[in-house]
Amino acid sequence: MDTSYKTEDAVVLASGGQDSTTCLAWAKKHFNKVYAISFFYGQKHSVENDIAKEICESMDIPLKTVDISFIKDIVVSNLFDGTDDVNCGHSQNKDVPASFVPYRNLLFLTVAAGWAGTVGAKHLVTGVCETDYSGYADCRDVFVKSAQVALNMATDFKDKNVVIHTPLMWLTKSEEFRMAEELGILDLILKRTLTCYNGVQTMNDFGMGCGECPSCMLRKRGYEEFMKKYHNGDCNGK
Ligand SMILES: [Zn+2]
Fold it and tell me: At 121, which CATH number?
């Protein structure tokens, strides 16, 4: 990555999960000052806001938490507290998981871009990923690129236009674990981050989680692949 970013600041979308925590460490390496922003939106696992706060404190990154819980009254998702199973299909599109929150990432990026402008940062970093595509349209590269164009069309701030970075976009989960290891935060990822859709904080080899929801399954499989590929000596193992 271009080292000229070392003089510029970034805002990272933080959720207390594996992806965003990896992005926080990545941003600290590549940018001057790093800020974090997290969202409360009535999610089942609202404990993630507390975890994001702990992680940001441990990394010495200032965090702004924004309440957008009105979205719970506006759109349909089984990710919200008090709703049903997250493993079935979404009521608006059965091909999409019920945990999908329509327009969530567009709203997140819009609010984050506003905050970035206020603190003088022109870079946004988000941990969305298309490789382990779960049917979330707003995790796709084409969405993020379109959002960047739309945000800048909405303001025309010229040299202060926002640039959105997605360092995890084309990584598999096992490569993401490897990236965390190279950034020196593998222990933090395994012991502190919470990615589980059910917000279960039971400790496993792959980190905290219920071990059964789609997010835990992905993380578990990724960790097993990571250990096999990088720590059993087959190809790049130590
Ligand atoms: Zn889980």
Answer: 3.40.50.620
Q: Is residue 214 part of a domain?
A: no
Examine residue 135 and state whether it is found in any structural domain, yes or no: yes
Tell me how far apart the alpha carbons of residues 229 and 107 are, in angstroms, rounded to a whole number.
37
Query: Using CA atoms, how far apart are residues 39 and 219, in angstroms rounded to an integer?
Result: 22
pTM of the complete model:
0.91
Q: Count of CB atoms within 10 A of residue 96's CB?
A: 16
Cα 105 to middle of ligand 1, angstroms: 21
- Distance (angstroms) between ligand 1 centre and the Cα of 218 equals 10
Domain region containing 160: 3-173
Residues 64-96 pLDDT 10s: 999 998 988 888 787 776 666 666 778 787 788
- CA of residue 150 to ligand 1 center, whole Å: 34
What was the pLDDT predicted at 79?
Answer: 74
Contacts 24+ apart (CB under 8 A), 71-77: 71/41, 71/42, 71/101, 71/103, 71/104, 71/107, 72/41, 72/42, 75/101, 75/102, 75/103, 76/102, 77/101, 77/102
What's the domain count of the chain? 1
Residue 102: pLDDT over 70: yes
Q: Is residue 32 included in any domain, yes or no?
A: yes
Q: Model confidence over 27-64: pLDDT tens digits? A: 999 999 999 999 998 776 678 889 999 999 999 999 99
- Give me ligand 1 centre to Cα 94, in Å: 21
Output the pLDDT for position 191. 96
Is the residue at 195 inside a domain? no
192 token code pair: 């502190």
